[in-house]
Amino acid sequence: MLARNLSESLRTRATAIVMEPTIQDFTIYAEQHPKKVPPAVIGFLRYKPEYLHQHREDVLRFPTQRCWVEASKRMYGCEPDADLLNNGKREAWKVLVSLKCGDHVGSEFWAWYRVVRNVNVPKILTEGTIQHSLDETDAMMVQYAAIFAVSQELNSNGVKNHYTGLHQFVNDLQREMRVALVTQLSGASRSAIATKFKDAADLLLVDLIPVVTP
């Protein structure tokens, strides 16, 4: 195949359309193909959206949507029945992400995922406090990890009546973090929070994002 640059006369007559990937689009793809992209990948990319697609000349491998899908296939392949947060040998995930998306991305993904695995979700939901054993981790990463872990728990197992710490947890989050939480909650979870914990639901009404979806 012969490839060459367009002449200036053609370029001035053409309309350039720039198509940029977004985490919203990739999230929709993951939701439509639940066995192709693990929730942990989406959680990481919400925390680090710049790693969805990051072209770099100074490295051999860099992340793209296709690379994430390829890494995800291998992640599911090495551990098809593992629980999201608690079971299995997840150390292989760091290697898989590094091979497909670059060593720098694999290292950051694994650092974030280690934080997720140490989030005490029951304590958050019953007492409202985030306790974490990795004290060296920055607060922003811990909060994103907590939001991801809590949303996964609520979406998977429902909103229980004894989750009395939910209001305190939401209250302590910054506005940006509340938006991050509500966008990761399913419609059923939002409705259940609105019914059982109205004070927490009111706090999640940020930037006109409704808790209860029609």
Summarize the structure in words.
The chain contains twelve helices and no strands. It is globular, with a radius of gyration of 20 Å. The longest helix has 19 residues, at 139-157. 58% of the residues lie in helices and 0% in strands. The protein is mainly α. The chain has helices at 8-13, 23-32, 39-47, 65-78, 91-101, 103-117, 121-127, 139-157, 166-172, 175-184, 187-196, 198-203.
Q: How are the SSEs placed, and which strands pair?
A:
Blueprint: H1 8-13, H2 23-32, H3 39-47, H4 65-78, H5 91-101, H6 103-117, H7 121-127, H8 139-157, H9 166-172, H10 175-184, H11 187-196, H12 198-203
Helix pairs in contact: 2-3, 3-8, 4-5, 5-6, 6-8, 8-10
The largest sheet is: none
Q: What global shape is seen?
A: globular
Rg over CA atoms, rounded to whole Å, is 20 Å
Structural class: mainly alpha
How many distinct helices? 12
Q: What is the terminal-to-terminal distance?
A: 52 Å
Low-confidence stretches at least 5 residues in length (pLDDT < 50)?
A: 80-88
Task: Give keywords.
12 helices; 58% helix; 214 residues; single chain; mainly alpha
Short overview:
This protein is mostly helical and 214 residues long.
